[in-house]
Design a protein that fits this description.
It is a single chain. The chain is mainly beta. The chain is globular and about 55 Å long. The N terminus is likely disordered.
């Protein structure tokens, strides 16, 4: 966590660094967005809000090696935070295989592997709620990991088959502040226990139609990272939940119509209490229609459902809900976009409400 003075120095340093390294042909860019938000939720208010400021850089080290970093500056509760979102180095071994080491977006689903931290990248003003990053209010998935990643693509019968294989530090959670008082921890420099998280995603791209299908899986031993006196009652490093995630995704991108859909199943086994084993599910489907080159309406339906006794969702303090999202994207140019969004949120416990967002998203290349 950084205060405002430190953040100012960091921003100045990065801008100075960018002016220096640009001489060496580093690909450098900044994503940003400014929003106006309103809600019908009881106690809510309307306000202008700064979105995150996302700095990234890519460098070709040699003809087979490249490196990448991404840092995001954002504000929560009038405090400034700086997060190192991605940092990796990649080596091309042959035409079908790359090996990388560092911090990545977990190979789960289409959205997480293609739409990163810049709001300009996607059509709606917000991500699907359950695909919030680990510190988000609706997050249920470990969307970053630190470790090694193998990826590549091979020719198939009527298309191409892509693959990603990961092996890295497992996620953890600190229950010292009670259930819902923390966030899913990525563990950049350590791992509370010796269990690592393997994962894989395969995709198939058809040659004749603009369709990509994907399947993914990930296994996690989610450990306690809090010290004694935490809510779980177990010591740091012991397993809270043994988890298996399976997922399927679809992307269709036609001349006018596009479709995105993802489905996740989370099998969670309680390893410190007696809640047993439960399976939750989350999914969305998104439809878009390109009216003109610059105007595109989008509709998305989202759903999160799980058993009330599922210990994983109890620890995160998440709720079951459905969302209807209607958005209009207007491209002012390739590097700045206006979005208008209305969203209806219907929690299982009742108390449905609406949220409205006007967003101006941009890229400084």
């Amino acid at each position: 966590m950084f205060n405002r003075k430190n953040t100012k120095f960091l921003l100045t340093g990065i801008m100075l660094l960018s002016s220096i390294i640009s001489v060496h042909a580093v690909e450098f860019g900044v994503f940003g967005d400014v929003n106006y938000n309103d809600t019908s939720q009881a106690g809510g208010s309307n306000a202008f809000a700064l979105g995150s400021l996302d700095f990234y850089a890519m460098q070709e080290i040699d003809d087979k090696t490249r490196a990448f970093f991404e840092m995001v500056f954002e504000e929560h509760d009038n405090q400034n935070f700086v997060d190192l979102e991605r940092l990796w180095i990649r080596r091309n071994l042959n035409d079908n295989l790359n090996i990388s080491a560092g911090r990545f977006h977990t190979p789960l689903g289409y959205w997480n592997r293609n739409y990163h931290h810049g709001a300009l990248l996607y059509d709606t003003a917000t991500r699907p709620g359950f695909l919030d990053f680990e510190d988000g209010a609706g997050s249920i998935l470990p969307l970053h990991f630190v470790g090694i990643l193998f990826d590549g693509k091979v020719r198939a019968a009527n298309g191409s088959l892509g693959y990603e294989l990961q092996f890295g530090n497992g996620p953890s959670y600190n229950t010292s502040a009670g259930y819902g008082g923390g966030e899913i921890e990525v563990n950049n420099i350590s791992d509370p226990n010796r269990s690592k998280s393997p994962g894989a995603r395969i995709t198939y791209n058809f040659n004749d139609i603009p369709l990509t299908l994907g399947l993914a899986a990930m296994s996690n031993n989610i450990s306690e990272s809090g010290l004694s006196g935490n809510a779980s009652g177990i010591i740091s490093g012991q397993t809270l939940v043994q988890q298996f995630i399976s997922a399927a995704d679809l992307e269709f991108k036609g001349d006018k119509v596009d479709v995105l859909a993802e489905y996740y199943s989370l099998k969670n086994d309680d390893k410190f209490g007696s809640a047993g084993s439960h399976t939750g599910k989350a999914y969305y489907i998104q439809l878009g229609y390109q009216i003109t080159a610059s105007l595109k309406p989008v509709y998305r339906y989202e759903s999160v459902n799980f058993d009330d006794n599922d210990i994983y969702f109890l620890i995160l303090n998440r709720r079951q809900e459905n969302r209807h999202v209607l958005a209009l994207r207007y491209d002012l140019s390739e590097s700045n976009v206006l979005k208008f969004q209305a969203m209806n949120v219907s929690p299982k416990t009742g108390g449905a409400y609406n949220e409205y967002i006007i967003q101006w998203a941009f890229l400084i290349p």
